[in-house]
Amino acid sequence: MKHFLFASALLFSLSAQAKLPAPVMDDAAKAKAAEAKAKADHGNKVGAYKLCQWQDKAASAYFKNASTAGKTVKPPVATAPCVDPGPFVPPVAAAAAPKS
After folding, report:
1. How many CB atoms within 10 Å of residue 24?
2. pTM (2 decimals)?
């Protein structure tokens, strides 16, 4: 029984290492993938912007509460302001541009 399990595990591991061919993508699929990547990147920027806003709010509340409680705290470190990424703008497809 041990030999059977070892042999089946060996065969499974060898088959899992087989190389698959690269997927063939046409221009429409490439454009759709580029747009999906752009949407994901924009979503990450929006998430970072919201996180920045909440961190600023939490830090200001901490310093306000610490000063009213009589604690001595170091002044806050100056950081870059939160930058709003704006609305999502889909990338312009290079294939849609007229060729001359």
Report:
1. 6
2. 0.64
Q: How many Cβ atoms sit within 10 Å of the Cβ of residue 26? A: 8
Domain containing residue 42: 26-62
What's the rounded Cα separation, in Å, for the pair 7 and 1? 10
Summarize pLDDT for 43-56 with one digit per residue, the tens. Answer: 999 999 999 999 99
Q: How many domains does the chain have?
A: 1
Residue recorded with tokens 């990450």? 44
- 50/84 Cα distance (integer angstroms): 9
Tokens of 68: 């009213």
pLDDT per position as a tens digit, 28-39: 999 999 999 999
